[in-house]
UniProtKB/TrEMBL annotation:
<keyword id="KW-0234">DNA repair</keyword>
<dbReference type="InterPro" id="IPR001126">
    <property type="entry name" value="UmuC"/>
</dbReference>
<keyword id="KW-0515">Mutator protein</keyword>
<dbReference type="InterPro" id="IPR017961">
    <property type="entry name" value="DNA_pol_Y-fam_little_finger"/>
</dbReference>
<keyword id="KW-0460">Magnesium</keyword>
<dbReference type="Pfam" id="PF11799">
    <property type="entry name" value="IMS_C"/>
</dbReference>
<dbReference type="InterPro" id="IPR050116">
    <property type="entry name" value="DNA_polymerase-Y"/>
</dbReference>
<keyword id="KW-0479">Metal-binding</keyword>
<dbReference type="InterPro" id="IPR022880">
    <property type="entry name" value="DNApol_IV"/>
</dbReference>
<feature type="domain" description="UmuC">
    <location>
        <begin position="7"/>
        <end position="183"/>
    </location>
</feature>
<dbReference type="InterPro" id="IPR043128">
    <property type="entry name" value="Rev_trsase/Diguanyl_cyclase"/>
</dbReference>
<keyword id="KW-0239">DNA-directed DNA polymerase</keyword>
<protein>
    <recommendedName>
        <fullName>DNA polymerase IV</fullName>
        <ecNumber>2.7.7.7</ecNumber>
    </recommendedName>
</protein>
<comment type="similarity">
    <text>Belongs to the DNA polymerase type-Y family.</text>
</comment>
<dbReference type="Pfam" id="PF00817">
    <property type="entry name" value="IMS"/>
</dbReference>
<comment type="subunit">
    <text>Monomer.</text>
</comment>
<keyword id="KW-0548">Nucleotidyltransferase</keyword>
DNA sequence: TCTGGGGTCCTAGGACCC
DNA sequence: TCTGGGGTCCTAGGACCC
């Protein structure tokens, strides 16, 4: 007898757009897009015209002339997303949140209280609709991978339960791109081998897959194609890295242009690291050039950092190294900084003053403490008066914001 | 057709150690 | 001195996800 299907995957439909239609009834049933220059989310009515998230606003208007653009209610997205996930949490503590609008849950331990998994899934959908006012699709299956596929198949506003006895019949006729980990590149590579469905993938010799995709990816995909997915629900996952990036349009590859942006990015990241006492040891910088090719440089330190000016200085050095290696590239289109190897719980006062040869590198040194005190003062003022009250303000630096900061914050993982 | 921003994981080569 | 084997860490790049 096969095991019971107890894994749920719940996914709010066209989340940002659905919230806008909830808040403003005149938008219901209409093609709408959240955003302006860039489409951050599109309603199903807009998707029917080919409008997609990430698309330039101009292109979206071409596809759908009657498209209504709305600026986002970002605070509401956070509140309503939290509320929807909380409904799932009323059934089981085993909830793994994937993003603002999506979560896995394992209800194996609570069926004696609430009934079988399909009944729980129906109740969750009804409650989210009744209490919050939003459509949510749910997939129920024996594994995370299959539950996720089931919820995608269920969209919009549906429920799909995959019986363990017929899961391969369900899985094998679906296109490969529904699989977790199959993006445009892998899809194209598989298509060259005439592999279009998950069933065809399942019967492709392991050697062929490994030659095509590498040993790890080949083996993983083959296992998923047979619904062998060992992943458990992880209720509390901590972030592995924190980063920020900024598209620049086209800027000359010169200090005067990249330094203010790097300081702004370092400020955003280091503030988050300090707030959670999670400094990091590895700093990575990415520079994208005008031709959209990019290069990265990273450095791993002996001790973790979270001071704004320390991070900014390291990032500047790394960008200079990238530019030195690409002397023909004269134009930068994007800058990114990421900090990884994060500590779990760190005493920030112990941070060392890096890059200062005349200062002994030891805990509590003069410059280390000075930076710590300066950052702490800025953090406190911002806690009371808001981000722009003080600091290396993007306004002062003339930073161009392509998306609202509130939208950035929605995408940030809890550190 | 040249989309923005925040993330995760994998690979392959090299350094270094035992 | 050369050879072999295993493990860990770092770096750069890439695919993918939401």
């Amino acid at each position: 007898m096969a095991a019971t299907a107890t894994i749920l995957h719940a996914d709010l439909d066209a989340f940002y757009a659905s919230v806008e239609q909830l808040l403003d009834p005149s938008l219901r049933g209409k093609p709408i897009a959240v955003g302006g220059g860039v489409v951050l989310a599109a309603s199903y009515e807009a998707r029917a015209f080919g409008v997609r998230g990430g698309m330039p606003g101009r292109r979206a208007r071409e596809l759908c002339p009657q498209l209504t653009f709305v600026s986002g209610h970002y605070k509401e997205y956070q509140r309503l997303g939290d509320a929807a996930i909380k409904v799932i949490g009323d059934f089981t503590p085993l909830v793994e949140r994937i993003s603002i609008d999506e979560a896995f849950a394992d209800v194996a331990g609570c069926t004696h209280l609430f009934g079988p998994p399909d009944e729980i899934a129906r109740t969750i959908r009804q409650r989210v609709r009744a209490e919050i006012g939003l459509p949510i699709s749910v997939g129920v299956a024996r594994t995370k991978h299959l539950a996720k596929i089931a919820s995608q198949v269920a969209k919009p506003d549906g429920l799909v339960i995959v019986d363990p006895d017929t899961e391969l019949q369900f899985l094998h006729h679906l296109p490969v791109e529904l699989m977790w980990g199959v993006g445009p590149v892998t899809k194209a590579r598989l298509a060259e081998m005439q592999v279009l469905t998950i069933g065809q993938l399942a019967t492709t010799p392991g050697r062929s897959l490994e030659r095509l995709l590498g040993p790890a990816a080949g083996e993983k995909l083959a296992a998923l194609a047979w619904n062998r997915d060992p992943r458990q629900i992880k209720a509390h996952r901590r972030a592995q890295s924190a980063g920020a990036q900024s598209a620049l349009g086209r800027k000359p590859a010169q200090e005067q242009f990249f330094r203010p942006t790097l300081l702004h990015l370092a400020d955003r990241i280091s503030t988050r690291l300090r707030a959670k006492a999670r400094p990091g040891r590895t700093v990575t910088v990415r520079v994208r050039f005008a031709n959209l090719k990019s290069a990265t440089r990273s450095v791993t330190l002996d001790a973790p950092i979270s001071a704004t000016v320390t991070l900014a200085a390291l990032a500047e050095d790394l960008v200079r190294a990238v530019l030195a290696d690409h002397p023909d590239e004269k134009t930068i289109s994007l800058l990114a900084i990421s900090v990884s190897h994060l500590e779990e719980d760190w005493d920030l006062e112990l941070e060392l003053p890096l890059g200062l040869p005349d200062e002994p590198c030891r805990p509590g040194s003069r410059i280390g403490l000075a930076r710590w005190a300066a950052d702490r003062a800025v953090d406190k003022i911002r806690d009371r008066f808001g981000w722009d009250a003080i600091g290396y303000g993007s306004v002062a630096l003339g930073i161009f914001r392509s998306v609202p900061d509130e939208f950035r914050e929605l995408a940030e993982k809890d550190l």
